[in-house]
Amino acid sequence: MSRSSTNRKRKAIIEKSIDNFGDDGEKTFVGHGGFGDREAFKKECATLEKLRHPNIVAYIRSRNVSDGGQQMLAIVMEFCEKGSLRQVLFDAKIIYSMRTVLTWSKQLFSVLTYLKQNDVIHRDIKPDNILVTKNFLLKVGDFGSIKLKADSCSGTFVGTLRYMSPPRAGEPVGRKDHFMSSHRNDVYSLGLVLWEIVEQR
C-alpha cells in the first residue's frame, strides 16, 4: 500500500513496511534540490525529533537512501492506516457524527497549543497534512514548511494558498508577513479545515 506526491524539490512516499520499528511510514526527500533544500529537510527532522504529542505523527528516525545512484534523505515516521484526512472526508463509506467532529477539533487545537508552547509555526495546516490512524485518531504531519519563533522573517509566503489567512488591508508589508507567519495563521487554517469537516459530514 503506497501513496506518493511530488513537486520540483521533494517527493513524499508513505508505505507500509515491517522492520525492527514495526509498521512505519516513510517520507523521502529527493536530493536533487539545492543545499538550502537539504538544510530545510534537516531542520524538519530536528524539529520532529523534539516534538512529542499524541496528535503529531511520531518521528522514528532519519537516514540516507539511494535510488538509482541518486542520494536522498528520508524521514521514517509512524504509519497511519487511514491515510490523510482529505481521503477520509471524501470516502463515501465513512460516516462520522458531530461528536467525532468535536473530538477531532479538540485534538487539532491541542496540537496548535502545543506547537505555540514550543515556538513552532506549522504554516501548512490542511486536510492533506493531517493523517488518520486505524482508530480515527488525527495526527498532524508534514512539517516541511515550519517556522521557528527564533527564525528571521523572510517575507516569503509559505503554505497552501487556499488555507492562508488573507493579509489585513491597510497594514504595512512587514506586518502582513508577520501575520502570515504567526500562530494566528495556523488557527485560521485550522478553522477552514474544521469547516470542511463539518461541510462533508
UniProtKB/TrEMBL annotation:
Residues 1-201 form the Protein kinase domain. PROSITE patterns: PROTEIN_KINASE_DOM, PROTEIN_KINASE_ST. Signal peptide: none annotated. One of its GO terms (biological process) is response to stress. One of its GO terms (molecular function) is ATP binding. The keyword Transferase applies. InterPro entries: Kinase-like_dom_sf, Prot_kinase_dom, Ser-Thr/Tyr_kinase_cat_dom, Ser/Thr_kinase_AS, Ser/Thr_Kinases-Pseudokinases. Keywords: ATP-binding, Kinase, Nucleotide-binding, Transferase. It comes from the Eukaryota. The keyword ATP-binding applies. Pfam families: Pkinase (PF00069). Gene3D superfamilies: Transferase(Phosphotransferase) domain 1. This is Protein kinase domain-containing protein. It comes from Mesorhabditis belari.
